[in-house]
């Protein structure tokens, strides 16, 4: 009776899985409700009334715009650096087996495997020892370091599925290394890179722990939010920004998913 | 297709002449010496991570052997173990113990909540449901960390939705009884260890689900069927078949939940009591106290713990499940 092809899950498992997913999603949905509340001083539920006035108030806040602009610039440049470094590393690790290959994978994973605070304070003490003042570039330095792993993971997974014989075939047909890269390798890994880039962007846009150590006086969006959480000035504005941040990070994730969704049907997946 | 376009002329010679120029020379060189290409590919990422990251870690380690002059507040750049001596004060050991306990509890709770979701997604969800489950885990994983913490601040606040809900269910007495307990209780959930614990579990849960699901995907369904055909109860099947096979995934997930909890200083600061966690101690030592050596020594604790943890995880084959 169990091996009838399409087994149905036990009820208990269904309920536990559904509750788990609800637990993951309801709190985020709550943010959307609070963005419209008329209550200014407390987190009272249910909201006494609904309004859209806080969107206009937020729109006219220069500090929000500055933070947003800084966050986007940092994320864009960190993503670009991570794309180059992550792809190179993934290509090297997946093409060849060499001494120290495991160490390289570990080196790439380390910045996210160790707690963010370690990365943060390590960078801070390095800046202190080397007398580097905090700037836009110190933020980028930190972000690029932990963004590499996201690109690397996506690229490595795709390289694994791209069969090496396609590269050999291309070479056999007379293409040189650069042509092979341009016409064979790149089209194969492009969507994985784009997905990795999206995720790296989202990761950088959202990062707060490392950034608090490398930013000095500048405020990215998460740092702005952290300030508001610790010393609230105008709670409704925080609510609106929180909702916008959810939406801004949601879109790259959905797009990245869309890009890699049918990754198993990639050309040359001989396994 | 592109290859075909490159070589579409049927009369093309079997062996093409070299393409010449610098580009051709480089291409030939890389073909003849693949090690050189490998080196060139590895150099930028290894240099970056080596200098920026490993270099910084060593800078941090070096700082932990400096000490602070208690009168002037200046950092004395001479080798000393005094800072590590300071670290071993009872108050600091308390902080370390508190953080490690919290990390262990959070890891345990995440594993328990994650397992049904991962198992359902791996074994029963098909087609559209599978995609839905995947997104259902990915979206919370990638949603803004601070927003998630903020959401729990809203939920756990005294006037928030949880109190309201419990009030509707006539269960407020339960909440009050829980809050009156020592250690886990407090004035409201948002200023108690219970609140900190819930927020930690919520924020790190997706990190546990994904590797567990990856491990369970590799368990053939007929293994579970075989187990029940041979007369095992569902509980026995879980204990003797599923759990051992899922363990590398759980360990892989626990690397994240454990490590992330060890180093976090924002969740306990926003939702929690005034008693410090390692992350907060590091943050306040380097910030307000200006005692970077002690902050550095503090961070060595999670590094050492995670070092052992990763070593053990590697031996259990957890890295294959990442």
UniProtKB/TrEMBL annotation, chain A:
<dbReference type="Pfam" id="PF00528">
    <property type="entry name" value="BPD_transp_1"/>
</dbReference>
<keyword id="KW-0813">Transport</keyword>
<comment type="similarity">
    <text>Belongs to the binding-protein-dependent transport system permease family. CysTW subfamily.</text>
</comment>
<feature type="transmembrane region" description="Helical">
    <location>
        <begin position="105"/>
        <end position="128"/>
    </location>
</feature>
<dbReference type="InterPro" id="IPR051789">
    <property type="entry name" value="Bact_Polyamine_Transport"/>
</dbReference>
<protein>
    <submittedName>
        <fullName>ABC transporter permease</fullName>
    </submittedName>
</protein>
<dbReference type="InterPro" id="IPR000515">
    <property type="entry name" value="MetI-like"/>
</dbReference>
<feature type="transmembrane region" description="Helical">
    <location>
        <begin position="134"/>
        <end position="156"/>
    </location>
</feature>
<feature type="transmembrane region" description="Helical">
    <location>
        <begin position="12"/>
        <end position="36"/>
    </location>
</feature>
<keyword id="KW-0472">Membrane</keyword>
<feature type="domain" description="ABC transmembrane type-1">
    <location>
        <begin position="68"/>
        <end position="256"/>
    </location>
</feature>
<keyword id="KW-1003">Cell membrane</keyword>
<keyword id="KW-0812">Transmembrane</keyword>
<feature type="transmembrane region" description="Helical">
    <location>
        <begin position="240"/>
        <end position="259"/>
    </location>
</feature>
<dbReference type="InterPro" id="IPR035906">
    <property type="entry name" value="MetI-like_sf"/>
</dbReference>
<keyword id="KW-1133">Transmembrane helix</keyword>
<feature type="transmembrane region" description="Helical">
    <location>
        <begin position="70"/>
        <end position="93"/>
    </location>
</feature>
Automatic annotation (TrEMBL), chain B:
<keyword id="KW-1133">Transmembrane helix</keyword>
<protein>
    <submittedName>
        <fullName>ABC transporter permease</fullName>
    </submittedName>
</protein>
<feature type="domain" description="ABC transmembrane type-1">
    <location>
        <begin position="96"/>
        <end position="310"/>
    </location>
</feature>
<keyword id="KW-1003">Cell membrane</keyword>
<feature type="transmembrane region" description="Helical">
    <location>
        <begin position="36"/>
        <end position="62"/>
    </location>
</feature>
<feature type="transmembrane region" description="Helical">
    <location>
        <begin position="95"/>
        <end position="120"/>
    </location>
</feature>
<feature type="transmembrane region" description="Helical">
    <location>
        <begin position="191"/>
        <end position="210"/>
    </location>
</feature>
<feature type="transmembrane region" description="Helical">
    <location>
        <begin position="288"/>
        <end position="312"/>
    </location>
</feature>
<dbReference type="InterPro" id="IPR000515">
    <property type="entry name" value="MetI-like"/>
</dbReference>
<feature type="transmembrane region" description="Helical">
    <location>
        <begin position="132"/>
        <end position="155"/>
    </location>
</feature>
<keyword id="KW-0472">Membrane</keyword>
<feature type="transmembrane region" description="Helical">
    <location>
        <begin position="161"/>
        <end position="179"/>
    </location>
</feature>
<keyword id="KW-0813">Transport</keyword>
<feature type="transmembrane region" description="Helical">
    <location>
        <begin position="245"/>
        <end position="267"/>
    </location>
</feature>
<dbReference type="InterPro" id="IPR035906">
    <property type="entry name" value="MetI-like_sf"/>
</dbReference>
<comment type="similarity">
    <text>Belongs to the binding-protein-dependent transport system permease family. CysTW subfamily.</text>
</comment>
<dbReference type="Pfam" id="PF00528">
    <property type="entry name" value="BPD_transp_1"/>
</dbReference>
<keyword id="KW-0812">Transmembrane</keyword>
